[in-house]
Amino acid sequence: MRRFLRILLLISNIAAAVLLLISAYGGHVNPLTTTIPGMMLMLFPGLLLLSLLLLGADLFAWRRLMFVQGFAILFSAPAIWNLCPLNFFNNRATSTEQELKVMTYNVRYLDPTPGDTLQRSLSAIIRENPDIVMLQECRGDDPSEWSAYRSQADTLIGRYPHRYIEAASMVIWSKYPIDTVRIAQYPDPSSMFMAADIDVNGYQLTVFNVHLQSLYLSDNDKELYYNITKGNISGSNTDSTTKSLVRKLSGAMKQRALQARLLRSQIDSLDRPNTIVVGDFNDIADCWAQRTIMGRNLRSTFSAVGFGPTISYNAFHFYFNIDHMLYGGDIRPLRIHRGRELSSDHYSVTATYAIPLNE
């Protein structure tokens, strides 16, 4: 019996280590080739926890096996950092730099909250007071037409005199002058890009506001996922429904790969030196789409200055970080934080950057 348990523990350790490594590097595999590694990347936090539990079991049962999990965890370090960066110290702008606060927020068309006299997402924006606001799934009209939110709209109009709307739901508000940039769009209404050149006291900055492919999950799909996360898997059609859910997730991942490739080509063709790319990527950190958009000259703000794990989507137990902020050029990230307002199915994400003063 003892020999059988040791063999079982050995097999469990090897299987867990292999799965952990595949998931850790799942974002390196093009979904157009196969979506399995990318789907496994979504399971990385759970697989990491499993490896840590096995590492503890090995300590008491078979210490030599600790090297198996130790090896897997060590070589998964980049993925662990993307999931849970530990930047302990806050950066500050120097005397030759200016701070610039940028917010990204999927506001879900500014749905009202019953009983509230003010729209909560707008209140969060006003309270945070960023210099540049980039919204997804926003109303396609100018705030001057928001009669239902008159007082908030007046505040926003006064604060952000420069406003740009694209594709009826993508918005950029800025305290600084905007020069719109036309870029190619992917032929799907769920995918939208917009770009603008912004003059920040003489400093030339190019920003991209992004919404990549949504999952197009039905209410039944979301309810199924919610029940799965609660361990409540019942019903005669569970298997077929689960397959449908996986098929939709896989199809959306392939579409995002194509959209990310198109967006990256637009970034390359514009060839702006100082760039910020933010938005609702509908996929997790270090996924293929994010890595493609980053290319060789953009970096993740969260990895650079974030601390601890975070989530930016809050509905149906889809607890993932899918709203990302990238930067490149001589921009320097200082800090990043997630909002707490629950008026949308996304939280806002705000980062503060240091940019050189224009002398």
Molecular structure report:
- With 359 residues, this protein is of the alpha+beta class.
- It folds into 2 domains: 2-83, no CATH class; 97-356, Deoxyribonuclease I, Chain A (4-Layer Sandwich).
- It is built from 11 helices and 12 strands.
- The strands form 2 sheets. Strands 3-4-2-1-12-11 form a 6-stranded mixed beta sheet. It has a 6-stranded mixed beta sheet with strand order 5-6-7-8-10-9.
- It is globular, with a radius of gyration of 22 Å.
- The chain starts with a helix and ends with a strand.
Question: What is the CATH architecture assignment of the largest domain?
Answer: 4-Layer Sandwich
CATH superfamily of the largest domain: Endonuclease/exonuclease/phosphatase
Low-pLDDT segments, ≥5 res: none
Main structural class: alpha+beta
Order of helices and strands: HHHHHEHEHEEEEEHHEHEHEEE
The largest sheet, given as strand count, sense and whether it forms a barrel, is: 6 strands, mixed
From the alpha carbons, calculate the radius of gyration and give it in angstroms.
22 Å
Q: Can you count the helices?
A: 11
Give the mean pLDDT: 92
Given the C-alpha coordinates, what overall shape results? globular
Distance between the ends: 77 Å
Number of domains: 2
* Strand order within the widest beta sheet: 3-4-2-1-12-11
Topology record:
Blueprint: H1 2-24, H2 36-41, H3 44-61, H4 66-75, H5 77-83, E1 97-106, H6 120-128, E2 132-136, H7 150-159, E3 162-166, E4 170-174, E5 178-181, E6 192-200, E7 203-211, H8 219-229, H9 238-270, E8 275-280, H10 288-294, E9 299-300, H11 301-305, E10 323-328, E11 332-338, E12 349-356
Helix pairs in contact: 1-3, 1-4, 3-4, 9-10
